[in-house]
Amino acid sequence: KAKADGRNTCRFYKPEFTERILERVRLERQLRQAVDDDQFVVYFQPQYELSTQNIIGMEALIRWQHPDKGLIFPDSFIPLAEETGMIIDIDRLMMRASMSQFKSWLADGLKPGVLSMNLSMLQLDQDDFIEFVKRCFLDYELEPASIMFEVTETQAMLKPEQTVIALKQLSALGVGLAIDDFGTGFSSLSYLKKFPVNKIKIDRSFISDLPEDRDDAELTRAIISLSKSLNLDVIAEGIESKDHLEFLLCHHCDEGQGYLFSKPVPAEKMRLLLETSVKNQPERVVQT
Ligand code: C2E
Ligand code: MG
Ligand code: MG
Ligand code: MG
User: Fold this and answer.
1) What are the EAL domain coordinates in residue numbering (predicted)?
2) What are phi and psi of 17, to 5 degrees?
């Protein structure tokens, strides 16, 4: 009788729940395979000086070319990669792939500006990371000044004291540093001053409803003026419309990226954008 009751507690059993766990196990196994085979592809999104619309750099964004499922976006696997620690290998694969591509554009005389790459905070805890970065600069013959790393505000603020130390080590190499998704975490002003960062990236959730949403408009203006008073560069992400652009220009946001200019694109497409952008620069037009 007691046994029967015990079995009854299984009435909460949900097949979808088991299915979800199995799916996660499968995904984890496939992600490990993806790391072993390097099934990742780098997409690049150009970044612009808003006043001239010249390309000043690009952000490398990961895609997973899954053997059966096609192209998978980072939001579907980066969280699992973080949980399992696989993000450390993944970010290093991405860094090598992005830098190698970036180098080839420089070698061809293009002007790709600054290469920006996203880093997990887990990476900054690795003792050999600084050595790894230095190794990459040698392997791809890149100047540290042409490289920027982005860490999200949320991750940076998890252990802010540790972040300060880690970012100082990176910054000492001569690379640029940016706080990503700014406005979604809870930075205190004192930490923002202590982080040795060069740039603030306004999260795209603040941009999407500009200029109508008054709170977002107020916050965006506040972040821009905060950046200026701390002597930091500021870039807006997720610029999708002329209205967004106009608002940002009007409030002196210097840089931006977004679908209005270009979606993240594969390397061949990025090369075309760089070639066109060089042609559009006045001095080149005079030469040809
Ligand atoms: P993020 O670094 O904040 O990158 C910006 C995201 O906004 C990208 O999404 C980009 O495709 C998207 N985006 C850009 N412009 C627009 C726009 O105008 N409208 C809209 N709706 N979206 C826009 P994506 O590529 O899906 O990447 C998502 C996040 O995944 C990134 O956010 C970043 O946090 C993470 N991530 C991407 N690549 C890497 C990587 O190599 N390493 C690590 N650790 N994280 C990465
Ligand atoms: Mg980013
Ligand atoms: Mg962002
Ligand atoms: Mg984001």
Assistant:
1) 24-278
2) -65, -50
